[in-house]
Amino acid sequence: MKKPPTGSLTLTRNAYRENQQRADQLESQMKALLEAHYPHLLEVYGVKTITASQLAVTAGGNPQRIHNEAAFASLCGAAPIPASSGKTNRHRLNRGGDRRGNSALHRIALVRMRHDPTTRAYVERRLGENKTKKEIIRCLKRAIAREVYKILTRPHEAETTVPDGAELCALRKTRNATLSDAARALGTWPARISDIEKHHRPLPDIANRYRPFAVERGGVSSQGARALIG
């Protein structure tokens, strides 16, 4: 087998570098646009610039035309399709919708299944319920579509003040409450409470509901909590 001419290798290498630089420039431009129009989309766990851009493109220039999160899930091909038979209640993957948007949701789901403790615990629980991996991914994609829809249609809503995680942690401890106690009261997972307290993820909806729980009968004011952590 003949070796390619040295000149050809040089041209190929230079072309690769130029294309990589161009790709990096385009990604930077996309990130700037996302930060301007959907400032909180990149904060979603597992979402990066490319997947965020694709979801924004799928939603279109006027996401408000999508009347609810179920419609957005259907647009992305993430809405469940009933496939029950007899006493077996099942749903199957939707092969319709925008396949690129569906692919973006799929990549986010895979990232969470590998790295997010909450998602991994969910997967284990669902496997214990005899759900298949495909069914679990379908459920995850549906949940992610719901999460993304809220950001795409209300991009600046999450800019409200989020309680400080360390302060919430101090308030919780004054109640002698565990992470599990807080999670149970708020209907979420302990890992999410930990994420809020450690500033891993803002999760404003949960954080704002967390404050009333933390201060209820806690005997310590917010100022007192700040003194405890200061």
Account of the 3D structure:
It is a single chain. With 230 residues, the chain is mostly helical. The chain has 2 domains: 34-158, no CATH class; 161-229, Orthogonal Bundle (434 Repressor (Amino-terminal Domain)), CATH 1.10.260. The chain is 63% helix and 2% strand. The chain contains 11 helices and 2 strands, in the order H-H-H-E-E-H-H-H-H-H-H-H-H. The protein has helices spanning 6-37, 49-59, 69-75, 99-115, 117-128, 133-153, 165-174, 179-186, 190-197, 204-215, 222-229, and strands at residues 81-82, 91-92. Strands 1-2 form a two-stranded antiparallel sheet. Strand 1 and strand 2 form a beta hairpin. The protein is globular. Residues 217-230 have low confidence and may be disordered.
Protein structure class = mainly alpha
Low-confidence stretches: 217-230
Number of H/I helices: 11
- The portion of residues forming beta strands comes to under 5%
Q: What's the total count of β strands?
A: 2
Q: What's the average pLDDT?
A: 82
Can you write the helix and strand succession as a string? Answer: HHHEEHHHHHHHH
Total number of distinct structural domains: 2
Q: What does the largest sheet look like?
A: 2 strands, antiparallel
Side by side, the strands of the main sheet go 1-2
**From the structure provided, what is the oligomeric state, counting identical versus distinct chains?**
single chain
Helix content: 55-70%
Radius of gyration: 22 Å
The shape is globular
End-to-end CA span: 70 Å
Protein name: IS110 family transposase
Keywords: Coiled coil
GO molecular function: DNA binding; transposase activity
InterPro entries: Transpos_IS110, Transposase_20
